[in-house]
Amino acid sequence: MGTGDSFDAVVVGGGHNALVAAAYLARAGRRVRVLERLGAVGGAAVSARPFEGVDARLSRYAYLVSLLPVRILRDIGATVRLAPRQYASYTPDPADHARTGLLVGAQSTFAAVGAGGDERGFEEFYRRCRALTKPLWPTLLEPLRTRSVARDHVLAAGHPGAATAWSELIEQPLGRAITAAVSSDLVRGVMGTDAVIGTFARLGEDSLDQNVC
Ligand SMILES: Cc1cc2nc3c(=O)[nH]c(=O)nc-3n(C[C@H](O)[C@H](O)[C@H](O)COP(=O)(O)OP(=O)(O)OC[C@H]3O[C@@H](n4cnc5c(N)ncnc54)[C@H](O)[C@@H]3O)c2cc1C
Q: If you measure from the C-alpha of residue 153 to the centroid of ligand 1, how many angstroms do you get, rounded to a whole number?
């Protein structure tokens, strides 16, 4: 960027959110400059080859693309090929020195970690989550709703477990609902990771910061 260059917007950092913002601005006819400190853009969504001699590309952080609305791709004219996978996660069992573990997905292995009785509670928990996520998902590209308007919207969608789900996921420390749903610490840990990742909060905190992710 030379002296005298002028821009309508300068975006600091070239992660995927910045790139999307810059693309929208550019499509709206604005002159935009993105400043990225690294040699490549993409931020945490970029994969890397961490092991010398092994041609395996691993995610740095953002490996699951669950919150990328197709509308954004259409709006900015981006072509992204996403690869679906059969399994959500694998957690080695420390009690067994990681010889076995909990695979969650097409053929889950709850029994292998002594948590066969938790499989149903696990599935029911995520079914309750969908009572919120299904109606809220289409609103994510709209102006942010207040808590009470969002709650009315969720309840109006008519899912039978919606009121309970709202209370468990929004109004109480998330750890309570997870603890009530399953009894194995390993399974709780997997569910807790889904919840708190990136929030740096504890599952039982009264601040409810952990419920935000
Ligand atoms: C452990 C972990 C796991 C995660 N897993 C997932 C997942 O599976 N799926 C998912 O969707 N999300 C996941 N996330 C969240 C996801 O990584 C972030 O939400 C996402 O990367 C945020 O994108 P961003 O564009 O805002 O910022 P980032 O991806 O963080 O990009 C920021 C960019 O800005 C650059 N930058 C920073 N400061 C400056 C500066 N001063 N000057 C110039 N450049 C600068 C950085 O180098 C970087 O390229 C995870 C996060 C963590 C911590």
A: 30
Per residue in 70-108, pLDDT (tens digit) is 899 999 999 888 888 889 899 999 999 999 999 999 899
37 lines ligand 1 (CB under 6 A): yes
In 3D, which of 203, 150, 141 has the Cα closest to residue 173?
203
Instruction: Give the residue, out of 10, 37, 60, 196, with the most ligand 1 atoms within 8 A of its beta carbon, to mutate for a pocket test.
Output: 37
Print burial letters for 22-43: b (CB count within 10 Å at least 16), e (below 16).
bbebeeeeeebebebeeeebbb
What SS3 class is residue 109?
A: coil
Residue of the CA atom closest to atom 32 of ligand 1: 15
DSSP string, 10-72: EEE--BHHHHHHHHHHHHTT--EEEE-SSSSSBGGG-EE--STT----EESS-----S--HHH
Per-residue pLDDT reduced to its tens digit, 102-160? 999 989 999 999 999 999 999 999 999 999 999 999 998 999 999 999 999 999 999 98
Backbone angles phi, psi at 107, to 5 degrees: -130, 85
Instruction: Please give the ipTM for the structure prediction.
Output: 0.94
